[in-house]
């Protein structure tokens, strides 16, 4: 298991070992040992799955405390550019983001702690996006940021993604009062 830390505190990319043989391949897609190695103890309580057409952009979303979610995200098939925006008010990297290319060939896994707005764009048709969450779904606590906000300066790699109407009306960072 290799892991990579980022300039924004709390984000971790894990790259499990893939065991290929003439039958196919095997890998461990999650282990608490990964987190013990980096001193994090997330308590995952819910697994999610979404499948997206190529060009679909979901996000940028979060749940407000006390229902904030840490997420461990990966793609089982396809490819996605994953984005985590730091919305922790007292963070020196507030408003900054990290991108992580999730690839079902590399099988890398990205951990995003509470205090981040999360989104991704599917780069291949039928990208299957899987993630573990550290809190249950609580729709009344959902919030978000507009994916295309120039102040976030996110390069999604495409100019005309397929975005849901509810995501197109999310607030700009300048109008946003973070609950974190
Ligand atoms: C998130 C969620 C949704 N739902 C239901 C509610 C809706 O009827 C339907 C689709 O939900 P939504 O349009 O919010 O799905 P996404 O746009 O993929 O939302 C996700 O997108 C970004 C990438 C995230 O990080 C979050 O996990 C989540 O906000 O699933 C549930 O029943 N449970 C859930 O945990």
Automatic annotation (TrEMBL):
GO biological process, one term: dTDP-rhamnose biosynthetic process
Root EC class: isomerase
InterPro entries in alphabetical order: RmlC-like (IPR000888), RmlC-like_jellyroll (IPR014710), RmlC_Cupin_sf (IPR011051)
Similarity comment text for this entry: Belongs to the dTDP-4-dehydrorhamnose 3,5-epimerase family.
PANTHER family, alphabetized: DTDP-6-DEOXY-D-GLUCOSE-3,5 EPIMERASE (PTHR21047), THYMIDINE DIPHOSPHO-4-KETO-RHAMNOSE 3,5-EPIMERASE (PTHR21047:SF2)
Role description: Catalyzes the epimerization of the C3' and C5'positions of dTDP-6-deoxy-D-xylo-4-hexulose, forming dTDP-6-deoxy-L-lyxo-4-hexulose.
Annotated Pfam families: dTDP_sugar_isom (PF00908)
Catalytic activity field: dTDP-4-dehydro-6-deoxy-alpha-D-glucose = dTDP-4-dehydro-beta-L-rhamnose
Keywords of the record: Isomerase
Protein name: dTDP-4-dehydrorhamnose 3,5-epimerase
Lineage: Bacteria, Pseudomonadati, Bacteroidota, Cytophagia, Cytophagales
GO cellular component, one term: cytosol
Organism: Pontibacter arcticus
Active-site residues (renumbered): 61 (proton acceptor), 131 (proton donor)
NCBIfam families: rmlC
GO MF annotation terms: dTDP-4-dehydrorhamnose 3,5-epimerase activity
Subunit structure of this chain's protein: Homodimer.
Pathways involved: Carbohydrate biosynthesis; dTDP-L-rhamnose biosynthesis
Site (Participates in a stacking interaction with the thymidine ring of dTDP-4-oxo-6-deoxyglucose) residue list: 137
EC numbers: 5.1.3.13
């Amino acid at each position: 298991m290799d892991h990579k830390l980022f300039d924004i505190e709390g984000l971790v990319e894990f790259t499990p070992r893939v065991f290929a043989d003439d039958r196919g391949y095997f890998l461990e897609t999650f282990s608490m040992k990964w987190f013990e190695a980096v001193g994090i103890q997330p308590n995952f309580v819910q697994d999610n799955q979404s499948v997206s057409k190529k060009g679909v952009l979901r996000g940028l979303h979060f749940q407000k405390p006390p229902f904030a979610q840490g997420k461990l995200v990966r793609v089982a098939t396809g490819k996605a550019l994953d984005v985590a925006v730091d919305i922790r008010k007292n963070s020196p990297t507030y408003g900054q983001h990290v991108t992580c290319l999730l690839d079902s060939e590399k099988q890398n896994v990205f951990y995003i702690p509470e205090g981040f707005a999360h989104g991704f764009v599917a780069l291949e048709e039928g990208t299957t996006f899987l993630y573990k969450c550290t809190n249950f779904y609580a729709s009344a606590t959902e919030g978000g940021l507009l994916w295309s906000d120039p102040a976030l300066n996110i390069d999604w790699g495409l100019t005309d993604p397929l975005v849901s109407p509810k995501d197109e009306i999310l607030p700009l960072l300048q109008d946003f009062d973070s609950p974190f």
